[in-house]
Amino acid sequence: MDFDNDSQLEIAIANGHVYRDAEPPSTYAQRMQILFRESTKRYAAFDLADAAGYLAADHVGRAMWTVDATRDGKQDLAVTHQTEPFALLMNETQTKHSWVKFELIGVDDSRDAVGAVVTVSDGSLNRISPVLSGNGFYCASERSLHFGLGADHKDGDPIRVTVTWPNMSTTSYEVTANEQWLLVQGDEQAFLSK
Predict the structure, then answer these.
(1) Residue 138 CA to chain centroid, in angstroms?
(2) What confidence score (pLDDT) does residue 138 get?
(3) pLDDT digit string (tens) for 112-165?
(4) Which residue in 31, 78, 116, 185 is a FRET match for 166, CA 20 to 30 A apart?
(5) Are strands 98-105 and 180-184 parallel, antiparallel or unpaired?
(6) Cut 0.85: pTM above it
(7) Rounded CA gap, 101 and 182, in Å?
(8) What is the pLDDT of residue 85?
(9) Residue 121: closest CA among 149, 151, 97
(10) Mean pLDDT of the chain
(11) Number of C-beta neighbours around residue 91 at 10 A
(12) Span 84-108, mean pLDDT?
C-alpha cells in the first residue's frame, strides 16, 4: 500500500506465530512491521521503537486488508487477530501528494472485473495495477484500485487511464486527481464515485 501517496509502495505485515508454544526466541504474539522503499531494490523497516498504541504492542495478527474508511484518499488498515478484537488503523500521515482511485464494473466479463489491468499515466508517472479476486487470509481489500501520484504531479494535470479488461478489450479515460472514479466496461466515460 502507499501510506503517503508518494507513488512508492510500502509493505505492512501483521505478524503472529501460528503455534502458541513456539520455541524461544520466537513468541506467539509479535509486533506489526511496516517497511518502506529504501532504493529500487531494497526495503527497510520503519523504526517503531517510540510508537504508541497498536504499533507499540505485540499481537497475534491473522488477516489484514486495506480500506479508505474515512474517504480522505489515504489507505487505512484493518487487522483481525487470533486472541483479540478486530483493529482499524487510521492512516493520519501528513502528505500533500495527490491520489486517484478506481472502481471497475465488468459487463462482458465478471462483474467485479477480476483480471482487468489499469495503467495510470500523468506524464511523470506510469503505474500498473491488476484487479485481484482476493488478497488476504479470509479477507479482501476494498474493491478499488488506489494510486498515489507523488510529488511530481501538479494539481489540474490530466491523468490518462487505460483499462485492459479480462476479454483483452481496452478503454481509455482522462480523469482528475483526488477523486474516486467508476469505470464501466464498454463505456468511454468515467463517472465520479463516492
Answers:
(1) 17
(2) 77
(3) 999 999 999 988 889 999 998 877 777 878 889 999 999 888 888 899 999 999
(4) 78
(5) parallel
(6) yes
(7) 9
(8) 93
(9) 149
(10) 90
(11) 20
(12) 94
What is the sign of the dihedral through the CA atoms of 51, 57, 63 and 67?
negative
- List of long-range contacts for 30-34, beta carbons under 8 Å, 24+ apart: 30/58, 30/59, 30/60, 30/61, 31/55, 31/57, 31/58, 31/59, 32/59, 32/61, 32/79, 34/3, 34/10
**Rounded to whole angstroms, how far apart are CA atoms 26 and 21?**
9
Predicted confidence at residue 178, as pLDDT, reads: 94
Pairing of strands 98-105, 43-45: unpaired
Class of residue 27 by CB neighbours under 10 A (exposed 0-12, middle 13-18, buried 19+): middle
Of the candidates 111, 109, 91, 100, the residue with the CA atom closest to the CA atom of residue 169: 109
Identity (one letter) of the amino acid at 194? K
Bond into 25 cis (ω within 30): yes
- Helix ranges restricted to H, 62-137: none
Average pLDDT estimate for 68-93 = 92
All residues at 6 or more sequence positions from 96 whose CB lies less than 8 Å from its CB, including other chains:
none
- Looking at residue 112, what is its pLDDT? 92
